């Protein structure tokens, strides 16, 4: 996991990211929590400092929070009710089955060519009736931001097609804009899907 510029940025700027992320209340999380079956097992994929994993756990769910950044995992481990593990997207098949998968602004760091494989792995890790919440920044292309983190951008039609091809059925959507760690305000899309 060394030599990854995106993870290097998150390790170096973990405190700044935690301050920014925990100050915002992402509306997609409320939709996700309402859709989850009670007491479900949830994967927080790319959990960052674990603030959303802690909210999911506080709502009565069993949470496995994973991230590729060692600094982020150290923060997530300190959250009440959260089990945290240092892992990458390709480790998904090893995690077991889930009633919900939360991927808030994490899969946008995967190359476009890899996203279909990651979505297929997430589908395979989902129990029947599971809910999947995915937030992505919208736009075109892929490449590094001004901090050096890799991003892949999508439009809504493209994401809906990719989800459908992987066996997910989008049932709700939200969109908006928000500032990021790089200091730019960018548009985003949240899609709530079911298996």
Order of helices and strands: HHHEHEHEEHEEEHEE
| Adjacency order of strands in the biggest sheet | 3-2-1-4-5-9-8
Give the quaternary arrangement of the chains: single chain
| Individual helix count | 7
Average residue pLDDT: 95
Distance between the termini: 31 Å
- How much helicity do the residues have? 25-40%
Shape: globular
Low-pLDDT segments: none
Can you count the beta strands?
A: 9
Secondary-structure content class: alpha/beta
What characterizes the major β-sheet? 7 strands, mixed
Describe the structure.
The mean pLDDT is 95. This protein is of the alpha/beta class. It is globular and about 40 Å long. Strand 2 (62-67), helix 5 (70-77) and strand 3 form a beta-alpha-beta unit. The strands form 2 sheets. A 7-stranded mixed sheet has the order 3-2-1-4-5-9-8. Strands 6-7 form a two-stranded antiparallel ribbon. The chain is built from 7 helices and 9 strands. The protein is 32% helix and 32% strand.
Summarize the structure.
The chain is α/β, with parallel strands linked by helices.
List the helices and strands and how they pair.
Elements: H1 5-12, H2 14-23, H3 27-35, E1 41-45, H4 51-58, E2 62-67, H5 70-77, E3 82-86, E4 98-104, H6 115-124, E5 126-137, E6 142-144, E7 150-152, H7 156-165, E8 169-179, E9 185-194
Parallel strand pairs: 1-2, 1-4, 2-3, 4-5
Antiparallel strand pairs: 5-9, 6-7, 8-9
């Amino acid at each position: 996991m060394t030599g990854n510029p995106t993870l290097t940025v998150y390790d170096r700027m973990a405190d700044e990211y935690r301050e920014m992320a925990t100050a915002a209340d992402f509306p997609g999380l409320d939709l996700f929590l309402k859709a989850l079956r009670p007491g479900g097992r949830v994967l927080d994929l790319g959990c960052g400092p674990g603030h959303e994993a802690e909210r999911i756990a506080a709502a009565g769910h069993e949470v496995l929070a994973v991230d590729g950044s060692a600094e982020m995992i150290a923060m997530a481990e300190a959250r009440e009710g959260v089990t945290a593990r240092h892992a990458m997207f390709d480790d998904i098949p090893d995690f077991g089955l889930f009633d919900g998968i939360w991927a808030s602004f994490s899969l946008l760091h995967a190359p476009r060519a890899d996203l279909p494989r990651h979505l297929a792995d997430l589908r395979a890790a989902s129990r029947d009736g599971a809910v999947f919440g995915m937030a992505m920044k919208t736009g075109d292309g892929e490449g590094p931001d001004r901090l050096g983190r890799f991003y892949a951008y999508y439009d809504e039609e493209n994401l809906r097609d990719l989800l459908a091809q992987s066996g997910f059925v989008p049932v709700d959507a939200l969109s908006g804009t928000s500032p990021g760690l790089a200091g730019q305000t960018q548009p985003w899309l949240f899609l709530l899907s079911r298996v």
